[in-house]
Design goal:
The protein is mainly alpha-helical and about 80 residues long. It is built from two helices and no strands. It is elongated, with a radius of gyration of 23 Å.
Length: about 80
């Protein structure tokens, strides 16, 4: 039975890096494309989190005010 693994499609792009960084990466055998992709993926995740917090700041503040005023919902059932 053959198992097919889905590989995300990739697209070529141009990237400018400092010469010394690129030279050192090559000397160390770092796959620059994969390292760049990992860095961009991390930046995208961080930006999504930042935007989510920004977009939901009002709701979070409202919920925190509710908890401050009324306490934790169903707290009377807590065992700790």
């Amino acid at each position: 039975m053959e198992v097919l693994v889905s590989v995300p499609s990739r697209r070529s792009t141009s990237l400018t890096l400092s010469r010394s960084l690129l030279d050192e990466a090559r000397e160390l055998g770092v796959n620059v494309s994969r390292a760049a992709e990992a860095g961009v993926a991390a930046a995208v995740r961080a930006e999504r989190v930042r935007r989510w917090h920004e977009e939901n700041a009002g709701a979070i503040a409202d919920y925190n005010r509710l908890i401050d005023a009324q306490g934790v919902p169903l707290s009377r059932f807590r065992k700790f």
